[in-house]
Design brief:
Number of strands: 6
CATH architecture of the largest domain: 2-Layer Sandwich
Helix content: 40-55%
Shape: globular
Amino acid sequence: MARWLVVGLVCLFGASLSGTAWAESIAELAEKLRTHEDFRVRTQAALALGATASKKAIPPLCDGLDDDVDTVRAASAGGMARLALGGEDCLERRLRVETSSNVKKMIQKALRLIAEGAGASGLGPSAKYYIAFKAVDNGTGRSSVSKVAVSAMRSRIADGKGFVFAPARESTKQAKKRLRKSPHVVGYALKPKVSTTKTTGELLVTCAVDLYDYPGGDSLGGVSRSAGKSGIDEDDAGEEDGLVQKACGQAAGEFMSLAARVD
């Protein structure tokens, strides 16, 4: 990464964004980050997403971590550091394969700030539910489906009020300590199970989510949703991913309704 780009990124990260950047919606910024041909525009979009203070900015910033340009990846990690609202899974995944030392440092900073937020202000008076994810039981035969399932659930839950995500590698001791300081918060662990039923021209995806007390581990039942589509190739990965997103997103919504009724 050229020196001027590093300096420019640091300045952008620490400075106030322009009125134009603030005026753009998260959807518009996400589209720029995903598709704009100029890496400088993608970099600015990532930083602007980090300034939105919205959990809805996390999915596009996670995608930005896979950009071909290290400046954009660093800006995406920087945006997540500024948000400090979640995204540990994708940050840790990128950290395992990242080759740029500058990007690695920004990812590590983001992980630290997110963890600190979960332990402090993240469980403040507005927090009601503390959410952890267990490993996905993936019966589709495609390993990438696990990421799609969790991403869909996190995105849906992030739209709700009072939901805070636990750090990906939080220990039982850490979780108990945080929840002791916030007796008004209820902890849940979610374990998605994704399965498919394929017939000629039809695909059905089921996302069944087992619910557990967190961090205690006692079973609390589960929720399940299915999504299907006819007239498609049973080996169409894109269609399958879309159905996984739909089914798991709906299952997450059902969990949120259940948690509100129990509350």
